[in-house]
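The pair is set out directly below:
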Amino acid sequence: MSAASSNPRTVEEIFKDFSGRRAGIVRALSSDVDEFYGLCDPEKENLCLYGHQNESWEVNLPAEEVPPELPEPALGINFARDGMNRRDWLSLVAVHSDCWLLSVAFYFGARLNRNERKRLFSLMNELPTVFEVVTERKPVKDKPSVDSGSKSRGSTKRSSDGQVKSNPKMADESYEDDEDEQGETLCGSCGGNYSADEFWICCDICERWFHGKCVKITPAKAESIKQYKCPSCSMKRRQ
C-alpha cells in the first residue's frame, strides 16, 4: 500500500514526495513496463498502481480502510489490459496516474496557504507529466506574460492602459509547431533564440523579452514582481 509514514508538510517536502512517487510510476510504465504489464492480470481482483516516495512502484489491491490514509489511485487498471492496444492502455494508466499524483500532493498541501499551493503547483508543473513521458510527447512551455500586473507564463501582456496586447510571435500554434514558430523571438540580453524549455520574462517598459537566467529572474521571483524593468530600463530610470 502507498502509506505515508511521515507526512510531508512544507512545499519542498511535498514536492520531494511527489517527485519520488512520480519517478516510481514512470519507471513502471517505461523501463519496467514488461514486469508491470505481467502483474496486471485481468483475472485478478481490482488492482492499482502505486508510486512510493523512494521512487519504487507496486501493483496491489486498494487500501481496505475507509477512508484510506491517502487518496487512492485508479481502481481496476488490470481489467482493461487485454481489451485495448498495449500503448493505449499504458497511456490511459499514465493519465490516471497523473491525476493520482496531483491528488496526493494537494492532499498533503491542503494546509498550505494560497501562495504556497501556487508555488507547489509551479514546481510540479515544471516536470513532464507521466502521460507525456509514456507517449514521448514533447511538453511545450509558454513564455511569461503579465496578468494583472504580475509575470507568469503565457502569450499576452497588459499595457499600462490596461489593454491586453498579444505578441504576434507567441500566438497559439499547433502543439508540434509551437517552438519553431516562436524561434524568431530573441533575448534582449544575449541575443539567443527562444527555447521552449527555458523561462522568459518581458520588460514592461521596452517590451523586450529576456531569458530569466540572463537577467537573474526565476519563475518564483517573477510571481512577486508587479512591473518588471529590465537592467537597461532600470539604469535609464536612475539617470
Summary: Confidence is low (pLDDT under 50) at residues 1-5, 144-183. The radius of gyration is 22 Å. The chain is about 35% helix and 10% strand.
